[in-house]
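Pipeline run #58 for the internal structure catalog. This entry was flagged by the ingest filter as a single-chain record with no existing model, so it goes straight to prediction. Upstream metadata was stripped on purpose; only the residue string is passed forward. Reviewer on rotation: M.T. Logging verbosity set to normal.
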Amino acid sequence: MAYPQAYVDLLERLNRRGCAICGLLHAAENQYIDSLLYEYSNDPDVQQKFRRGRGLCNHHSWLLTHHHGYALGVSILFEAVLDEVIDLLDSDSSASPVGGWFGSKGLARLPDKLETETPCLACASLCKSETQYVETFATYWNDPALQNAYQPSSGLCLPHFRDVLRRMTDANARARLIEVQREKWETLRSELNQFQIKSAFNYVGEPLSVAEADSWRRAVASMTGDEHALLSLPRPR
């Protein structure tokens, strides 16, 4: 049986720490940014999309600056954005200052014209990847290899756990996933409890284990998703 690449990616990622889907989104995000800067910064179509989107969202625009060696690509893409914004400011230049942007009607129209016309390109790409991984997980959950890989893993974060449950149609499969996930959260809650007990100023006893010491960070990731993994991505209801 031939499995989709998303399934293979999930199996491999479950061997690593943290929510597998969050981890795959981080990888997809970095791959998208690298490809954008290395291959497409001079592409007229991409530059036009940057114009319409006024760049990327705040998070992904700044992420561009952290990919070392691509300053030229960033400058090219954001020059296109600046050109678009200046063109919009100058679009009524033939009119008098009173009747142009500086008149009451012009001032009311300008902010809307400066708004983004399209969603962030990076966010849109990540939304597609996220949907693919969530749907693949839900579809193949009954596969023994996936269940075996999931059992010792960190489990899914709460947002992705919800997303997967919404896409599962088999009640028994859903119950099994809930059972396994609940065990993971019970363990995490116990580690949090020990962290609190052993962090008391007057505590005398066994030192914190590795799992207990970082349980508070893992609790944040488990309940909300990995840091920046879900930023700007719409959550289904």
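catalog note: The chain has one domain: 5-224.
catalog note: Residues 5-224 form one domain.
status: ready for reviewer M.T.
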